[in-house]
Structures are given as structure tokens and as C-alpha cells.
């Protein structure tokens, strides 16, 4: 089968590898769609944010969906022909975090696309518990986007307590940030977005954002004050991983507000006394979602009539992987999706 590997230095390799065989408790999935994520660029450059293996040692792709093609011994909840999305964290299944549905917090966890073979391929094998059944009304592309992109941001919005009373700011309008607009609007919030690229701001407004700001523009803080009637944001999400965005978000949130950092960042500099302690702000990291939240995510997508395919601005075959990663790296796409 064809599979995409990223050995670093912006190299993309399409290799012929054997179709994997599902072992006990495992499922073989024929991949139909698989998304590129901003965190994949750490592999593209060669400085993986989820480490442990040699560069290029795993098939990439942590956001696949497809059809169950075969099951291993002991599988009894998933059947051949089921349509599924894939949960990226593979845990031991018995520790306290796995029993909570937080497989990515397992001390022995691995991550598909980073330390276990991922979905940028014709087939992928994962444990049965990592299969998330998708309904007939959901496309494979929407299913792939529903996990890391929408699921992560929906879970972050829940942690922040987003509701109709919320005024939320989102920094960074890549696929995560724009998915956050859809999630927050579904929960009733007013949403302000921040990105230096005009086309990304326009795209977010088209998805429902109430105001869009260039964070580097003169007078942006005055404009934001006008948007919040001088009260400040109730909550903020940073999807950029930028120190500047971290500080702007913390400054913009009102006392007793909440801030979630989602964008990957190895280090940052903030001002705890002024930004956290004096304002009694809650600052949290938020990454991915609980496996048991997926049924709720599907209900919200259906009830709010959210069209996740709007985020998939570019589609590619596996043979076009080099072009796909280059355009995504150059920020010429929103969600880029491999169609298999």
C-alpha cells in the first residue's frame, strides 16, 4: 500500500509498505480521508512535538476516517463495514486515565502519526477502542475533521465554560482556530478572532465570527474594548503558540476569566503577577478530547447543523503529498485533506 512519511527537512516520502494485519483487539481500517494538522509540520521540519521515534519511522497522519476492513481476535463491538473516525491516543486501556477515556494521558501512550503508524495511507490498524463510529449523515471528510480539529476545540470550549453569556477571543485562525469559531458559536458565544492574515480573518467571519482583528494593527486594543463594552473578554483560546498572542490574550481577558493555550509552543514568557494573580485568571493547557465526549460532539454537530467540510479548503491524493504539505506550510490552505 502507499503511505506518507516525513523524515524531516521538509522532505516528503511516499513509500510502498505492507498492508498491516490486525492483532488481538485490533481493527484494520481502509482509510477514506485523512487531514493534515499544524502539529504535523513539526515532523515536516524534523522537530516533532510528540517524540520518541526516529525521524520518518512512522506513517504520518493523526486525523483519519474510513471503513472497517477486517477485525482481529476478540473484537466484538466493531464490525467489518462500520464507518469510523479514529481517536489518536493509543493507551494501555487499564490505567486510571484510559478508564476515564483520556487515552492521551496514559503513561504508556503512543500517538498515531507520531509514534505509531498513522492514517496518511491506504490502511491503518488501531485498537478497537480507538474506533469512533460515525453516523450515515456524516461524510468521511467531516469525520476526519471532527476529531482533532473540532473535537479539540469543542472540548476546550467546555473547559472554559463557554455559553450564551460568553465573549470569547480566539488567536490564530488555522484549522484549529476556525474550528473553534464553529464550536463557540454552536454554544452561543460572541466571538472575536485575531490573525495577521486578512484572508483568514475573512474566512472566520464567513464561519460566524462576530469581529475579526489584525493583532498587529494600531488601535486594536481600543477596538476590542469597544467590542466588549470595556469589560474585556470572558475567555480566550490561543491556537497560534505565539508568545505575543499569549500575552495579548491574557491582557484582554477580564478578572476571573479563563484562558486556554492550545497551539504548540516549547516556551513562552508571560507576566504572572499582572496577568494571572491580580486578575485571578484561570490559565490551562487543553489538548484533544475525551473519547467519551464523541457522542456529544456528534449531537452538537447535528443539532447546530455544522458543516465541517467548509474547513476543508483543499483535497489531495496521497501521490500529491509533497504539494499538500508545501501549500499547508505556506498557509495557502485551511484544512488540507488526503482523499484515499
TrEMBL record:
UniProt xrefs under SUPFAM superfamilies: GroES-like (SSF50129), NAD(P)-binding Rossmann-fold domains (SSF51735)
Names of required cofactors: Zn(2+)
What does the record give as the organism's lineage? Bacteria, Pseudomonadati, Pseudomonadota, Alphaproteobacteria, Hyphomicrobiales
Q: Which residues form the Enoyl reductase (ER) domain?
A: 8-338
List the protein's name.
Answer: Alcohol dehydrogenase
- The superkingdom listed in its UniProt entry is Bacteria
Q: Organism source for this protein?
A: Lichenibacterium minor
Q: Which family does it belong to?
A: Belongs to the zinc-containing alcohol dehydrogenase family.
Q: Which UniProt keywords apply?
A: Metal-binding, Oxidoreductase, Zinc
Record keyword Metal-binding present: yes
Q: Which Pfam families match?
A: ADH_N, ADH_zinc_N
Please name the GO terms that the record assigns under molecular function.
oxidoreductase activity, acting on the CH-OH group of donors, NAD or NADP as acceptor; zinc ion binding
Check the record and name the InterPro entries matching this protein: ADH-like_C, ADH-like_N, ADH_Zn_CS, ER, GroES-like_sf, NAD(P)-bd_dom_sf, Zn_alcohol_dh
